[in-house]
Design a protein that fits this description.
Strand order of the largest sheet: 2-1-15-14-10-13-11-12
GO biological process, one term: ATP biosynthetic process
Number of helices: 10
Strand content: 25-35%
GO molecular function, one term: bis(5'-nucleosyl)-tetraphosphatase (asymmetrical) activity
Number of strands: 15
Distance between the termini: 21 Å
Largest sheet: 8 strands, mixed
Structural class: alpha+beta
Pfam families: His_Phos_1 (PF00300), NUDIX (PF00293)
Shape: globular
InterPro entries: His_Pase_superF_clade-1 (IPR013078), His_PPase_superfam (IPR029033), NUDIX_hydrolase-like_dom_sf (IPR015797), NUDIX_hydrolase_CS (IPR020084), NUDIX_hydrolase_dom (IPR000086), Nudix_hydrolase_domain (IPR051325)
Oligomer: single chain
Order of helices and strands: HEEEEEEHEEEHHEHEHEHHEHHEE
Low-confidence stretches: none
Keywords: Hydrolase
Length: 340
C-alpha cells in the first residue's frame, strides 16, 4: 500500500448538510474539487473545464497529496488548474467510481467567484467556460458529475448557497500539564504543536476568515499566530474563551459563542478543549431558533461530537450559515489539521 493510501485511512473529515452526510474518506484514491459559481443578472452560472487528455468537460479537481487535508487539496487544485484563489462554501455530494480496479471518490465544495478571471493552465486544462445550469448539464461528459450540480442548484433556489463560515478551532498540541509548573495561562505549545500551528494555518486558508478571535492564553495565541501573520489579521483576545472564565461563567461563554454565530463576517475562534461544550450549546440554541427544518436540525445536531475530547488538537469545526436566510446554519464540517 502506498504512503498516500495509508495517509487517507487516518484522515478525519466529516461533513453534514441537507445534501451530504460524509463520515470520512473510504476509497483507495481520494480527490477534491469545487464547483465554481456566480450569479449573473439573477441567474446561476457555473464554470466547467475541458481536459484535453480525456477530451471531457468536468469540474476542477485533483488527487490528494500526502500531508494535505481535503479542503487544502480542493483549494490547491483549483489554483493550479484554473488560476483561481477561492474560499470553500457549502459541501456538495461526493462522486464515487472505479478506476482500473480501484475505488475512487471526489469530494466537492461550492465556491463563489466574484471578481477573479479563471485561466486554464494549458496543461491538464486547456479551456474554461462559464455556462448556465442547463448548458452545463448538456456539456458535462460524465453523468455522475450532475450530482453535485443538482445540490448546488437546490441550494441556490433555497437561498442557502451564499454562506459565511464560522470556524471553531481547538488549539494545537500543548506541553503536558504534568510537566508545567508555572501559570496555566502561560503553558505554551509543545514542539510538535508549534509545527502543527503551521498546518493549522494551511487549513484555515481554505476559508480565509476575516476575523481572528482567541483565548489570550499562550497556547491559543501561538496556534493562530501563523495564520494571522500570513493573512495580516489582528487577533482579538477574549477572556471568556479561556478555560478558567468559561468554566466559572458557562452561560456567559455560551452567549459569547451565540453572539459570534450572529455576526456576518467569516471568523475563526480559537479556544480550549473544556470549552467546546459551550460551543455546542450555542450551536444547538441557534439551530433551535433558526433551523431550516427539523430533519436538518437533527442531522446537524447529530454531527456534533459528544464525547470528550470532542476534537483533536488543531482540529476545526466549520459552521456554514446562509447569508440570505438570517444566517441559518446549513452545514457542519470537522477536519483535523495535519499532525506533524
Amino acid at each position: 500500500m502506498s504512503s498516500v493510501a495509508e495517509y487517507i485511512q487516518d484522515l478525519t473529515a466529516q461533513r453534514t448538510s441537507s445534501a451530504v452526510e460524509d463520515p470520512g474518506p473510504a476509497s483507495d484514491i481520494v480527490a477534491c474539487g469545487i464547483l465554481p459559481w456566480r450569479c449573473e443578472r439573477g441567474a446561476l452560472e457555473v464554470l466547467l473545464i475541458h481536459r484535453p487528455r480525456y477530451d471531457d468537460w468536468s469540474w476542477p479537481k485533483g488527487k490528494l497529496d500526502e500531508e494535505e487535508t481535503l479542503p487544502e487539496c480542493a483549494i490547491r487544485e483549483t489554483r493550479e488548474e484554473i488560476n483561481l484563489d477561492v474560499e470553500l462554501g457549502i459541501p456538495l455530494p461526493i462522486i464515487r467510481y472505479q478506476v482500473e480496479g480501484k475505488s475512487k471518490e471526489v469530494w466537492y465544495w461550492a465556491a463563489e467567484v466574484t471578481t477573479q478571471q479563471p485561466r486554464a493552465d494549458q496543461g491538464e486544462v486547456d479551456r474554461v467556460e462559464w455556462l448556465s445550469v442547463e448548458q452545463a448539464r448538456q456539456r458535462l461528459t460524465n453523468d455522475n458529475d450532475h450530482q453535485p450540480l443538482d445540490a448546488l442548484v437546490e441550494a441556490f433556489e433555497n437561498k442557502t448557497l451564499r454562506t459565511r463560515p464560522c470556524l471553531f478551532l481547538r488549539h494545537a498540541k500543548a506541553k503536558p500539564r504534568s510537566s508545567w509548573s508555572r501559570a496555566e495561562s502561560e503553558r505554551p505549545l509543545a514542539a510538535t504543536g508549534r509545527r502543527q500551528a503551521w498546518t493549522v494555518k494551511r487549513l484555515l486558508e481554505a476559508w480565509s476568515p476575516q476575523r481572528v478571535i482567541s483565548s489570550p492564553w499562550v497556547r491559543c495565541m501561538q496556534t493562530v499566530a501563523p495564520f494571522a501573520k500570513q493573512a495580516k489579521r489582528n487577533v482579538k483576545q477574549r477572556d471568556i474563551l479561556t478555560e478558567k472564565q468559561a468554566g466559572k461563567k458557562a452561560s456567559k461563554a455560551t452567549k459569547e459563542f451565540l453572539a459570534q454565530l450572529g455576526k456576518n463576517r467569516p471568523r475563526v475562534i480559537c479556544t480550549h478543549r473544556p470549552v467546546f461544550p459551550r460551543i455546542f450549546e450555542a450551536i444547538k440554541a441557534h439551530l433551535k431558533k433558526y433551523a431550516e427544518s427539523k430533519d436538518l436540525r437533527d442531522r446537524l445536531l447529530n454531527a456534533l461530537p459528544t464525547d470528550n475530547p470532542y476534537v483533536s488538537p488543531g482540529a476545526v469545526i466549520v459552521v456554514h450559515q446562509a447569508v440570505d436566510r438570517q444566517l441559518r446554519i446549513v452545514s457542519v464540517e470537522i477536519y483535523d489539521s495535519y499532525d506533524l
